[in-house]
């Protein structure tokens, strides 16, 4: 007990603002069998974590996009129409589960974790064809996926950028070279435990996840600028590289008779 008191006193001496707290008691409604219990919430006074104007907004990233990001993009790329400004169309989050056929409890736990992270229940992805080499049968469950749109998409993207990525171990920024040439960006996480919705006590086998952000941008440069303004932590001193697309060869390129005739 003396050790705890000394630790508390040393903490308050280092952080004097933490000693000034305001407590609020929330009593349950009458008629509840737990009417004798009360919930006490304490908040430190003098410490502002988020501005009040930002904290009152329900969809902070969505509001910031329409109020701040759209005018900046319209000015930089000289768009004549408001509909030309790129935006995030959808976000697809998928997770592969190799032992889903042998472990039904693990599949259910992965579905519940994905639902907590994204705010939407995922669907099971199944194999279209049987592959004997990998011991995969037709219609066998291989993973889970969820497609986010609208306000749920902006809420997940806000938590992914500001909470998930900074809590990644040895995080040095995301790669700016993961664009596909059409303005879509993909990034992977090795562990889902970076999201605060999942408690460490309830975590089982560590699983990763892939996040595919689909935008309406025509080029990778426009998509890079859009995500950078939204707060995506790209690595410093780098930008998207141009994707060199080779011309697709048709059947007559592989026909030896046609080549022989052209040589003659």
From TrEMBL:
Residues 142-234 form the Large ribosomal subunit protein uL5 C-terminal domain. It holds the Pfam family Ribosomal_L5. GO terms for cellular component: ribonucleoprotein complex; ribosome. Keywords: Ribonucleoprotein, Ribosomal protein. One of its GO terms (biological process) is translation. One of its GO terms (molecular function) is structural constituent of ribosome. The keyword Ribonucleoprotein applies. Residues 81-137 form the Large ribosomal subunit protein uL5 N-terminal domain. Belongs to the universal ribosomal protein uL5 family. This is Large ribosomal subunit protein uL5c. It comes from Deinandra increscens subsp. villosa.
């Amino acid at each position: 007990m003396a050790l705890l008191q000394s630790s508390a006193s040393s903490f308050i001496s280092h952080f004097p603002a933490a000693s000034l707290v305001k407590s609020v008691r929330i009593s349950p409604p009458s008629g509840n069998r737990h009417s004798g219990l009360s919930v006490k919430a304490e908040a430190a006074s003098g410490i502002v974590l988020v501005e009040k104007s930002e904290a009152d907004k329900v969809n902070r990233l969505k509001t910031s996009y329409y109020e701040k990001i759209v005018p900046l993009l319209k000015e930089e790329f000289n768009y004549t129409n408001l509909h030309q400004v790129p935006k995030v169309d959808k976000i697809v989050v998928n997770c592969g589960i190799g032992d889903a056929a042998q472990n039904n409890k693990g599949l259910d736990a992965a579905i519940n974790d994905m639902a907590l992270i994204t705010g939407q229940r995922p669907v099971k992805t199944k194999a279209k064809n049987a592959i004997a080499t990998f011991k995969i049968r037709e219609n066998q469950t291989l993973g889970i996926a969820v497609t986010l749109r609208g306000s749920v998409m902006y809420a997940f993207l806000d938590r992914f950028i500001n909470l998930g990525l900074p809590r990644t171990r040895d995080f040095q920024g995301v790669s700016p070279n993961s664009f596909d040439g059409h303005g879509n960006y993909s990034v992977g996480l090795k562990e889902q435990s970076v999201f605060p919705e999942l408690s460490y006590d309830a975590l089982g086998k560590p699983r990763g996840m892939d996040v595919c952000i689909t935008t309406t941008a025509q080029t990778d440069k426009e998509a890079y600028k859009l995500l950078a303004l939204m707060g995506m932590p790209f690595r410093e001193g780098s930008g998207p590289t141009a994707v060199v697309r080779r011309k697709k060869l048709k059947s007559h390129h592989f026909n030896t008779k046609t080549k022989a005739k052209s040589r003659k």
